[in-house]
Amino acid sequence: xxxxxxxxxxxxxxxxxxxxxxxxxxxxxxxxxxxxxxxxxxxxxxxxxxxxxxxxxxxxxxxxxxxxxxxxxxxxxxxxxxxxxxxxxxxxxxxxxxxxxxxxxxxxxxxxxxxxxxxxxxxxxxxxxxxxxxxxxxxxxxxxxxxxxxxxxxxxxxxxxxxxxxxxxxxxxxxxxxxxxxxxxxxxxxxxxxxxxxxxxxxxxxxxxxxxxxxxxxxxxxxxxxxxxxxxxxxxxxxxxxxxx
Length: 245
Description:
single chain; 7-stranded mixed beta sheet; globular
């Protein structure tokens, strides 16, 4: 193992580092959560990552997203993330997908090629489909639940979806996954009650999505909540890929 990963190898061992080097992880959503997850995975020695996001960096991302700087505004997030990865570990194999993931775009991906899937997307439809794709292909997956409108990063924890509470997104996921016969799903979630944003930009507060859940205005977020969620996700992926408790 190279000097770059020598400190990690002191904790995980050479066999685990070899597993990480040979692993391919797909990260869906390269925002506040996904961006931090990707970087931690790459810095830990994961040898190949797929980056999936159709969005570009904008000024409102500067408060929390790892890839957001004045110089990256206007760039595709996947391109900005790839450039950052190459500056950290040029040997990492990076595949970018400038794609907004939905069931309609699932045929663009061969899920059997992944060793792990990170779900850091915002839409319920996409999250459910990713879980089903992972289940059908027997690929491990971890999903981020609601991180918006939260202020306490210490409240986030890892749990099975059916043992979650409080989080509205987790509630919807529990109901929809149960209908589909999914018996378990590792998630990162918080029991902190979501705060109401002070400035609301959605006047239609009665609108609901296809699952009957009231649509929310643009959520507030900070530098220290999504980053922690992303790092927790990365730690779980690393532990699962190496079988280290």
